[in-house]
Amino acid sequence: xxxxxxxxxxxxxxxxxxxxxxxxxxxxxxxxxxxxxxxxxxxxxxxxxxxxxxxxxxxxxxxxxxxxxxxxxxxxxxxxxxxxxxxxxxxxxxxxxxxxxxxxxxxxxxxxxxxxxxxxxxxxxxxxxxxxxxxxxxxxxxxxxxxxxxxxxxxxxxxxxxxxxxxxxxxxxxxxxxxxxxxxxxxxxxxxxxxxxxxxxxxxxxxxxxxxxxxxxxxxxxxxxxxxxxxxxxxxxxxxxxxxxxxxxxxxxxxxxxxxxxxxxxxxxxxxxxxxxxxxxxxxxxxxxxxxxxxxxxxxxxxxxxxxxxxxxxxxxxxxxxxxxxxxxxxxxxxxxxxxxxxxxxxxxxxxxxxxxxxxxxxxxxxxxxxxxxxxxxxxxxxxxxxxxxxxxxxxxxxxxxxxxxxxxxxxxxxxxxxxxxxxxxxxxxxxxxxxxxxxxxxxxxxxxxxxxxxxxxxxxxxxxxxxxxxxxxxxxxxxxxxxx
Length: 485
Hints:
With 485 residues, the chain is an alpha+beta fold. It has helices spanning 167-170, 201-204, 231-240, 270-273, 297-308, 321-324, 354-362, 365-368, 460-472, and strands at residues 5-8, 55-56, 92-95, 104-109, 123-127, 145-146, 151-154, 160-165, 175-181, 184-190, 195-198, 216-217, 221-225, 257-260, 278-281, 312-316, 331-333, 345-351, 382-388, 392-395, 399-401, 407-409, 413-419, 429-438, 441-446. The strands form 7 sheets. It has a 9-stranded mixed sheet with strand order 14-13-15-16-25-24-23-18-19, sandwiched between helices. A 5-stranded antiparallel sheet has the order 7-5-9-10-12, with no helix packed on it. A 3-stranded mixed sheet has the order 8-4-11.
C-alpha cells in the first residue's frame, strides 16, 4: 500500500549576477559521463523530493505514446500556505512509498546560459524517454504528470541539486538527463552508475541557443529596441547574446528578435505575435507611435488573445497603457488621465515575495554588489529602485471559476512594493513589480525601468526582471479561462 503525501516545493529562483565579455560556448555535452565537484546545497523551504512517483508536475513538452508526461518547475503566483499542503511553488507532488532501492546519486549545479548565474527551482530529472521539446510558438503550458519510472528533483537557491534514482528503473544506458526552467530546456544522454556521481556543468547549463538537434531549446523572444530602458542588454548579459566590455549587446549576436521602437506593427498581427513565447515592451516603447498613448481596440484584443493562448507579456512604466488597457480590472494606475510621472523618482523598495527574498539573500557578496555606483543588495529586504515613471494605486482580485465551480484569483501577485514619492500621497506603500494570469498566459509590469545607463554586471532591477521572467515562464497549475467582461 502506498500512502500519498501531497505538498508543494517552495520555489526560490536563484539568478545571480555576473559580468562576462561574451556568451559561453554552450557546447553539445558528451554522451559519456562527465564529472564536476559541485554538490547539493541546503534547502530553505519545503523538502525537495526525488522520484519515482505518480506526480503532477509541469512539462507540456512531454507527450509520449504511452500517455506519460514529464515534470517542470512552476509558480501559481501564490506564495502563501493555502491550507492544502501548498507553499506556492506551483509544483504538486504525490509521493508514494514502496519504491525500489535508491542506489544512484547525481549531484551538480544548474547555471544560466552565460555559465555564471546559478538557477534555483530548475527541474532536473532522469528518463529513458526524452521529452519532445518546446513548441515553436505560443502554447498553453499546462502542468502535466510525471511517469512512475522517472526520477526528479529541483535545484536549491545556489543552483545545486542532489538527484536520487534506482538502477532497477533507470539502468546504465539509454538514459537522458533533462534540465528545464520555463521554456529553457536541455536534454543530454548520460551514462549513470551506482553510487555517487557528479555531473559536469556543461550538461546542466541552460542553453543559450535554439538547437533542437543537439537537445537545446530556448524561448522565442521579441523585445523592442527602446532607449533608455534597454532590456535587450539584460537578456544579453543573461547569456542570450555576446556582451561588450561596457555591458551592452554586441549587435548581430542576439538569440532573440529586436523590434524597432517606433513601430507597433507586431501588435496588429496576432499570427506574428504568436511566433513568440515572450514579448517585451520596455519603457518608451510607444512614445513615437502614431496612436500613443491610445491603444487600438484591435491591439487590445490581440494582446488578450496572445496572453490567453499562453503568451508572456511584459511592460514597464511609460508603456503602462499596454497593461492597463488590455487588463483594466487588474490594477489602477496613479492619475489615470496622466499616468506617466515626471520627473522620475527613486525609492527604497521592499522585497515582499518570500522566494525572491531568499534567493537575493543567498547571493554571495561579489554578486550582490557589482560596484560602479550601482545599488547593492546590502540592505535586504530593502532595495533601491531607480527611474520610476509610473505609480500603481491598487491591484485587485480577479476571480475566475474553475472546473469545479470554485473561484480562483488570477489577479496580480506583488513581488516588490514601495512608496511613490512623486505621487500626491508619497508615504503610501504601493505595488511596484507585479505579475498576473490571464487564461493560459501571464503578464508582468514594473513601475521602474529595468536597465538604463550601460554598466558591467546586473544591478538589482535587472535581477528582478530575470527572476520574474523565469517565474512567469513556468506552467499553469490551476488552469482557468480568462476573466469575462
